Amino acid sequence: MTLQVTAAADIGDISATSDLTSLIAQALAAVHWADGSSGIRSGDIVVVTSKVVSKSEGRVVACADAAERERIIDSESVRLLARRGSTRIVETHHGLVLAAAGVDESNTDSGTVVLLPLDPDESARRIRAGLLTALGEQLAVVITDTMGRAWRLGVTDQAIGAAGLRTIEDLRGTRDHTGRLIERTIIATADQVAGAAALVGAKDSRRPVSVVRGLDSLVIPEDGPGASALIRPADEDMFRYGTID
Amino acid sequence: MTLQVTAAADIGDISATSDLTSLIAQALAAVHWADGSSGIRSGDIVVVTSKVVSKSEGRVVACADAAERERIIDSESVRLLARRGSTRIVETHHGLVLAAAGVDESNTDSGTVVLLPLDPDESARRIRAGLLTALGEQLAVVITDTMGRAWRLGVTDQAIGAAGLRTIEDLRGTRDHTGRLIERTIIATADQVAGAAALVGAKDSRRPVSVVRGLDSLVIPEDGPGASALIRPADEDMFRYGTID
């Protein structure tokens, strides 16, 4: 089985007046594949970085200075988990744990910051429905954000919104090839899809749309559990509290 | 740009008498690609699950019962980070943080457990050199293990060993498309490669070898920094200590 991941062409600068779903649909119609074919088909997974989703939803706010940025982070946070110097790891109202509540000053106009979408699963559902109307194909949609990790250096892209995808694969109760019962394994499939897509997206964020082909068995007709299913409940999390200097 | 990820055929049961590199080389010669071609070429990244590497290195030990398993985990650990019930999150002698020190009782003979390779970067270097000899191609090699994460549900594959690959991409000092200086971003590329490969590997571990094609710019002639470059130094880690019940 071969998986293919390809980046769609640049969709231009996005703002609250952009019709993001139409722009994505146009870009998808022109993607190219290793076998020489082009366009998308049912069973493909469309991966979109959260930045363009946020911009299309008007989640860009003025931010004059570092003090204002700290207040904006406060307003996006429900809990402080850890702090070192000017870096704060917080829990957002979505339940996501990440630096600066995802408040991002890169690739946006000077004097502004971009906030995460208010409800990324809802954003994914809306884009998925729009793509079905525009293209007539049953696709999955994943919205990603770039996050650090405990213990490991560097950032990876993770799924913060999803629709039409089995975002987790629960292997509990199945058996390994020796016949041994698998007791605990749940695979964070949507996060691995997000990371695969990040490998083809340009680092300057000018290619915010990618497509993953070959995981048709994970693409489902209903909206499904969304990426919120990937958030570990706080009471099951052994690392909910970090160090505060 | 299109990335392709494909799983090689089953390489059979691996033990300390197996010639793992030869078996991988044979399997690689037969992989199929979306464009109808087969085999591997310089610039491809070969991803191997740690379980078969461990088995080929004799890292399988007898384990009669739960008490013995706990003693084995102790011997693989340098530090306890968190504990809940029978689950222990520890730091291994490699600096990896994961449940049960990676001591794994799945897909191994009853009454045995599999330990992680002693030095996974060295394992990757050895396999890479062997593949160059066997196949005449300059490949990268990544050795993966399946790990949980703080805050997020489910496991993903991560790179624990690597050779011939830029395992991290350090964007610090570069500029985003608005010209803004990027101050902090380091991308954990090898972990995203590991996750992409996991999407095509069969869940029963009978397809432990995958190939990622299309990231030639990350494949380097020297062994490079290895996957140990992905371990966050303890003194920079805000979540080194969890909760102990």
What is the compact description of this entry?
Chain A has 5 helices and 12 strands.
Description of the structure:
The structure is a homodimer of 245-residue chains. In chain A, helix 1 crosses helix 4. In chain A, the strands form 4 sheets. In chain A, strands 1-12-2-8-9 form a 5-stranded mixed β-sheet, sandwiched between helices. In chain A, 51% of the residues are buried. The longest helix of chain A has 16 residues. Chain A starts with a strand and ends in a 32-residue tail after the last strand. The model of chain A has no long low-confidence stretch (mean pLDDT 93). Chain A is of the alpha+beta class. Chain A contains 5 helices and 12 strands. At the A-B interface, strand 1, strand 4, strand 9, strand 11 and helix 5 of A face strand 1, strand 4, strand 9, strand 11 and helix 5 of B. Strand 1 of chain A pairs antiparallel with strand 1 of chain B.
